[in-house]
Design a protein that fits this description.
CATH superfamily of the largest domain in chain A: MetI-like
Largest sheet of chain B: none
CATH class of chain B: Mainly Alpha
Oligomer: heterodimer
Largest sheet of chain A: none
Radius of gyration of chain B: 25 Å
Order of helices and strands of chain A: HHHHHHHHHHHHHHHH
Number of strands of chain B: 0
CATH class of the largest domain in chain A: Mainly Alpha
Shape of chain A: flat
CATH topology of chain B: MetI-like fold
Largest interface: A-B, 102 and 99 residues
Number of helices of chain A: 16
CATH architecture of chain B: Orthogonal Bundle
Number of strands of chain A: 0
Shape of chain B: globular
Number of domains of chain B: 1
CATH topology of the largest domain in chain A: MetI-like fold
CATH architecture of the largest domain in chain A: Orthogonal Bundle
Order of helices and strands of chain B: HHHHHHHHHHHHHH
Structural class of chain A: mainly alpha
Strand content of chain B: under 5%
CATH superfamily of chain B: MetI-like
Strand content of chain A: under 5%
Helix content of chain B: over 70%
Distance between the termini of chain A: 40 Å
Chain lengths: ~325, ~290
Amino acid sequence: MVSRASTAEKLATGAGLSPSNKPSRLFSVAKRQDLIAGYLFVLPVILGILFWVLIPMVLSLYYSFTNNSIIGSYHFIGLENYKTLFQSPTFIQSLQVTFIYVFISVPLNLLVGLVIAVLLNQRVLGMRVFRTLFYLPVVVPPVAGTLLWNDMFSASQYGVVNSILLSLHLVKTPFPFFTEPSTAMFSFIVMGLWSAGGSMLIWLAGLKSVPVELYEAARVDGASSWKRFLLITIPLITPTIFFNMIMGMIGAFQTFTTSFVLGGVTGSPLGALDLINVYIYRHAFSYFQMGFASAAAWVLFAITFVFSLVLFLTSGRWVIYRGEVE
Amino acid sequence: MSIQKRKKPLGRYLIPALAFLGLVILAVPFVFPFFWILSSALQTTTEQYSLPLTWWPKIPQWHNFIVAWKTMPFGLYLWHSVVLVFFVTLGTVLTSALCAYGFARIRFWGRNVIFMAVMATLMLPSTVTLIPLYLIMKHLGWLDTYYPLIVPAFFGGGGYNIFLLRQFMLGIPQELEAAARIDGASRFGLFYRIMLPSMKPALAVVAWGAIVGTWSDFMLPLVYLTSIKKLTFTLGLYALSQASYSGWANQLTMAMSIISMLPVIIGFFFVQGWLIEGINLTGLSR
């Protein structure tokens, strides 16, 4: 469209005929070719967004205002599903559980990943070996990892962690881990730390991108290593912090497998580990309340959207991109 | 200040040494679970439930792996997972690279809007679209088939991968392509002959993500695959863990968990170099 307009403009002014303008006409032909080529290249994702995102989203929003339950006909019930949701104690609980999980486990995971990355970045002996060791749990399938931790965190004295805690006299009776509502979330978050190596690789790349000259200059000025970390490293890796935070948060809001596997195996005690995604799954695929579950899914989407937006909007204040520093 | 300066030669060795010590201590909780899963997979039921704790079985029960494998048709499940991994990886790498090229190298009307839309899909929880997609698949007769798990991979391969590859392509100098263009290469020729060969590490990162993601995927197979003979390996492992919950055979669940970890752990050692190079080069940190 744009290319056609500009061609017409040139023809109208008669400039298109002058030999000096020949390259610009060629350019607009190229522009039209680019338009076609561009759309051909990105066609898969356009269709993908249409079929796997836009249409389902519209349908999902529509279902959330109906009493669709797979079998039989369904009809429009307005905001009924949303009203029921916010009056349902189990839904409110799943929201609370999700919030606690996201806002404790994401920063904690990033912090542990950063500490490991900073230590690895000290030209330490066996850096590659350590890096592999810390990263390995990340590739372990979540089902296998959860089954393993469920075994290690067994609430009986036969559980390996309890055995260690008992023999060190750190506890008098076996720690209940996943079996008590009061300790389940704590144990869940600790289990999640096993895969803190995921952010480590990205932190490492961020740390490596900090110019060495800056450290040298600060050292000449007599800044201690802690000060150098706080005043040079941290500001320069704020883009990495931002990236890790936003990806970590979106991912955590959508956690399903670990919560579901634990809930299935030990029976999540009084719903203490039932994240919102598990709540949605149960209502959709166990109780077949498709309309109701869609409403819950939209609440999750709204929450994710709002928090991402807040993070994006505030990022201008604390994320420093390299161009601005120099 | 002067103290700081005098400390410098010492600091050169002291800091790496302290870091090494810190890493050794930190590594214990990261490595111990791997030791423990192997130890418990090799124990007898009696050893699992006796005190003091059995740190390492007296006679390692290697046949536990065979017994576990035979509790369910795991050979079949493995085949299903391999097929899924193959097609999903193929679709993801192929179409995400195509789309990324379009976004990185070609200027066309509406490009930025489409790219923003792609990025926005990252925020969308999969459960929002899962319910209507399930009903659509039901309508198409695709429930309990592998199509709902494979076909989406051929439509862009996910926003994150497109973003990753686009970032990588932006870092590749345009001169190479410009030269080939003068020689009359088509857009697709540029993509296929020049771009693809020069971005192997990034493609490896994307392929690896697709492999691990598909192999480990739990939620989508759980929703779409219902009959017991169609399960994936990961679903089979979950089914086994549910079956043995009564506690008679925890060692079998652990043995099967190890088998489910092996392909990705072994694979990781092969792609590790590319993975790290890819993360450094895609400029994720910037």
